[in-house]
Amino acid sequence: MAEPSETDPAHESQPRPPQGRAPWWLWPNMVGVDAPLVAIAWLGAFAAAFSAPVKMPHYLVLFFCVWCLYTADRLLDAAKLRAGDPSPGLQTHRHHFMRRHSRLFAALWFFLAFIGGLLAITQLERPVFGAGLIVFVGAGAYFLTFVAPLGNKKPLPGKELAGGILFAAGSTVPVFADYSGKLPMVPAFAIYAALCGLNLLMIAAREGDLPTHRKFSAFLVALGVALGLTAAGFAILGTNAVTAPALRPLYFVEALAAAALAILQAARPATTRDAFRVLADVALLTPLIPVAMVLG
To answer: How much is the average pLDDT of 139-146?
Structure first.
């Protein structure tokens, strides 16, 4: 039998506990602000595309909610680490960091959950609050199905795809809660949800929770290319004469995000696990490009 190539994803070494200090660029991920920043960036992009009256309280509630959801997930993972769980996906700087500081983050979780809940009750419009409650129930179902099933049952497959849909739905609630337009919003949301799912699939595969063989990696690259071409097609051809001009920037940043994810997945053997994790989230910050151009 031929000796495996060192660059073959199917034969990458299994993740081990992190050694040494975490690099400075990993700190946003370790303290859990990367996912909330991605969420509010896309909320801003969708709000601009659909001329939705999104205000500062919407962004703050979204930031707190996403941070609390991700931190709750990591606190559960930290408990698994303390219990001796050897899962490869738990052997990262962020998980060991959370294990060491779980009491501090648990206290911070309760504080921010209270502040976020208070803002939601007092500052959000009724349609937005109602739609947010539906997403909150969905988040509870997600945790009980994919993260911590009742009765210590084995989590069901599909965590990454369900997480992508939930993340996309939660981060666009203020835009679509009381939206009275027609179907042109569906392709943009579907592409965004697929991008979130692809991001989670890539990270799970890189950290050892999903298959790492060539065919699966090639599938992820192909998915990114397909999403990029679809978004670019909508950006160039439009959806209809009325909404196309407003939606084109949104489709363009979706196409850029898909291209970035596809390139990152193709370059996976050349990246470290930590760098891959950070770059996968950076790829979803393409909505900030127009902002940077305006400020520049």
So the answer is: 85
